[in-house]
Design goal:
Low-confidence stretches: 227-232
Strand order of the largest sheet: 7-6-5-8-9
Helix content: 25-40%
Largest sheet: 5 strands, parallel
Shape: globular
Radius of gyration: 19 Å
Length: 309
Amino acid sequence: MSELSVEHLLGIKYLKPNDIDVIFKTADHFKEVINRPIKKVPSLRDITIANLFFENSTRTKLSFELAEKRLSADVINFSANQSSVKKGETLIDTVNNILAMKVDIVVMRHGNVGAGVFLSKHVNAKIINAGDGTHEHPTQALLDSYSIREKLGTVKGKRIVIIGDVLHSRVALSNIFALQLQGAEVKVCGPTTLIPKYISSLGVQVETNLKKALEWCDVANVLRVQHERMDIKYFPSTREYTQLFGINQEILDSLGKKIVIMHPGPINRGVEISSDVADSNDSIILNQVENGVAVRMAVIYLLAQQIKR
């Protein structure tokens, strides 16, 4: 198995196309493992991994934890809400205290952009970014691309539209980097208030008409509106947002072609996507969840191979 060109997984922008190939080939192997009756492998029996989540997470945290346990690693779970961070402890002090327990890999979600990069320069452990603010969420982008590849055979040459709250989404930025690295065309679609000003500098087109965006694409990756990151109103009402940018079966039926529907979760059913679409045969949302474990196993395994013992 080839090696990664990076020492940490801090963001897709630091990866080369070959890194994605290596991760996907390794994930193929682990996907076969997790579909066996005995789903564990002893690959990382001597590795200790700390999951540090300074922001709330359900799916990503569970997915990482499951991936780590499938690889037989020792796992420490850390939640900032129940820690000395509340008493004013700094990020480096928190991590150094955990590293004193001889931790090899740190999986971290943090509200500040660049927290993973900062940490990688100050602590002696492999860092995996599980989301930093509104910046990047690399493992989500990898599992999204892996799911497209599984469904359509390749990502290269495919047209993918990212719909919804692009402005506050770390998933969108990581996906744009990952898809372009693999030769896909990317558009974004949503209210102009939720599209970042810099988006065109990334070689991404903006489409404000949902029907046109869906007619253009092979895959629609639908994002939820992140109200928790909004300090002002970005559109008049949820009802109006749903009327203009919500995906339902009626609009899909009017396209005259099939497209693949994705969503990183959590889904706001009836807002950005209707239940009949989310649960339809065109949706690969549950495949994304399953693939998330295999892709995260691959990333953890590949970084663990670099640890000199």
